[in-house]
Each structure stands twice: as structure tokens, then as C-alpha cells.
Amino acid sequence: MKYQEKYLGSREDFFGFIKENLSKLVRGNLEVEGERVTLPGDKELVYKIKYEEDEYEGSYAIKISWVNKEEVEVEEEEEEEEEIEF
Predict the structure, then answer these.
(1) What's the domain count of the chain?
(2) 80 — phi, psi (to 5°)?
(3) Mean pLDDT on 19-37
(4) Of 10, 55, 64, 85, whose CB has the highest number of CB atoms within 10 Å?
(5) The dihedral of CA 59, 11, 2, 24: what is its sign?
(6) Which structural domain, as residue segments, surrounds residue 44?
């Protein structure tokens, strides 16, 4: 499931937002669209930071991800070609 919330504000509003949300995340009280956010303690976390800027717009993002379940790849059976002699 994907949950998302969007906010608009000043730079100072953003810093307050980050401070409050990080504090809630650490305490285990952060919710997004009513869904509690929990970072697993028994899995390896991958975290990335991304920054982009050009003359029209800019963006800054922090992403944390982890694997809950390994995907099982289904191997396709190779069809064996029969040699036909004439």
C-alpha cells in the first residue's frame, strides 16, 4: 500500500515539519494517512538522499527502504529442441 501526504509552507515551516516528524518516527508515533510508520529493527535499511536543481525547479528527497520478503524468480523451462535427421 502507498500512503502520502502533501504540505505547503515556508522554509521555516519545513524545518519544523521535519523536526516534528523525525521525533515522531523515532518514538514510533508517526502516521501517514492514519497508517503508523514503523522502520523494521531486524532488516537492513537502504537510505538515499537526492537533490536536483535547474533554472525552473528544485527538489530534495530522503528515501528509506527495506525488503520484507524476497521475490522468488520462476525459472522458465528451457525447451529442448529435438534434432531431426533426414
Answers:
(1) 1
(2) -85, 130
(3) 95
(4) 64
(5) positive
(6) 11-65
